[in-house]
Design a protein that fits this description.
There is one protein chain. The chain has 247 residues and is of the alpha/beta class. The protein contains eleven helices and eight strands. The strands form two sheets. A six-stranded parallel beta sheet has the order 2-1-3-4-7-8, with helices on both faces. Strands 5-6 form a two-stranded antiparallel sheet. Helix 2 packs across helix 3. The protein is globular, with a radius of gyration of 18 Å.
């Protein structure tokens, strides 16, 4: 099983779910390009990101691919480009469509890029500085996981996510590579499409696009759940995944 995180995330975001699945499955948690400990390519590109992820995965047997948000889009592109390698696909709260550019993300980029790291001695200082722009404690904590101590940085801290590059390429990230995939056949493997009832990333209007690219999809909506399904409802998320796997 291979897990792909969303924008501003890291592979370790999946640790809780992965540990429980690792009892019966080999599990790989991947840092997407521009995130975590992965390289920062010159530009963000869905096809290139999918290829880079594919290169990290052993090719000795097909795998189950799970992706959330941005990771879900990369996972869909990977399955379309390498269908023989992906045994089944789980897409968490994202659709194969272009969204209004960035939604809440431009504000997050601006807030993180605008932080004065010279004022940060302890992580609590970073939390205090970010609070006016990001009052939600959970989201603030999620964003600040990208801040790390760095003895080589000017103020002793640096960002582990490519803030400048991803902010620049947000129009691409918000989109869907329709032209790049124009001659690609639909993925005919089983697809679990998960949605949060309080999230706008999966809507009935997007069903046609999902059916076009992934005709064997089954959509499941988690009630009283927002965009971060696996974080908000880990037990239910895990139960649905296990049923999908036939565990």
């Amino acid at each position: 099983m291979v897990f792909l995180h969303g924008l501003f995330g890291q592979g370790k975001n999946w640790t809780g779910v992965a540990k429980r699945l690792a009892v019966r499955h080999r599990v790989l948690l991947v840092d997407l390009p521009h995130h975590g400990r992965s390289d920062w390519p010159e530009r963000f590109d869905f096809a290139r990101s999918a290829e880079l992820v594919a290169e990290t995965i052993p090719d000795d047997e097909p795998f189950t691919l799970v992706g959330h948000s941005l990771g879900g889009k990369v996972a869909m592109v990977l399955a379309l480009l390498h269908p023989a390698r992906v045994e089944r696909l789980c897409v968490a709260d994202i659709s194969p469509v272009a969204y209004p550019e960035g939604r809440e993300f431009p504000g997050y980029f601006a807030a993180l890029r605008g932080m004065d790291l010279s004022q940060v001695v302890h992580r609590s200082d970073a939390d205090r500085l970010l609070e006016p722009a990001v009052p939600d404690t959970t989201i603030r904590s999620f964003l600040l996981q990208n801040l790390r101590r760095d003895p080589h940085a000017q103020h002793g801290w640096s960002w582990q996510v490519d803030l400048d590059g991803l902010a620049r390429d947000l129009p691409v990230i918000s989109g869907w590579p329709e032209q790049e995939l124009a001659h690609t056949a639909p993925y005919d493997g089983p697809v679990l499409w998960l949605a949060g009832s309080r999230s706008a990333y999966v809507q009935p209007a997007y069903d046609a696009a999902m059916d076009r690219w992934f005709p064997r999809n089954r959509k499941v909506t988690l009630k009283d759940t927002g965009h971060w399904l696996h974080s908000e409802r880990p037990d239910l998320f895990l139960e649905i995944i296990q049923r999908f796997l036939g565990d």
